[in-house]
Specification:
By secondary structure, this protein is mainly α. The chain has helices spanning 6-26, 33-40, 44-50, 54-65, 67-75, 83-99, 102-112, 120-138, 145-167, 172-186. The protein has 10 helices and no strands.
Length: 190
Amino acid sequence: MARAPASRQEPRRRILRAALELVAGGGYEALQVRAISERAGVSSRTIYTNFPSLDSLLIVAIAEQSEALYTRVTESPPRGRTAAERVDRLIRDLTKTMTANRELTVALLRALLSGKRDVSQFVQGFGGVLQRMLASAIAPDGPSARDLEVAELLESIWFSALVGWASGTTADGDIGRIMRRACGLLLPER
């Protein structure tokens, strides 16, 4: 996603920061235009000039906050003797990050799953980022076509397990167990 010109960066940054603070403290329900506007010191028009919906605003805020993690993982994939070990380390890091603030993660999932047209590009982007991170863990020297397919499947399985965690049907530790089983089936002795 293209960044706003420098003249619009400061209000945009304040909007993103306000959204994250509100959601971290009060969940998805706290993501309200009036509250963001007051906290960021901008008009509601400024919010909608920068973001087509509150869901897209939240997704962009979390994505920009996560850029350092994405860069670190893709430039220096987790270490391990096998692809399964490297993926397990990555999944542990991702799961720890995502389960650290339940309110924020549940809000992100609600935004990603909202079904709104303006959000679809972010859903694809979120999945793509996770797939690239997984592919770099599977094959640090460059993934094959099969590695990319496996990364796509693992991303879908992890996302499903995370949704289960958010809805209360999967415990934190279960996410890792689900992913280790998937790696055992999809990454045999690599």
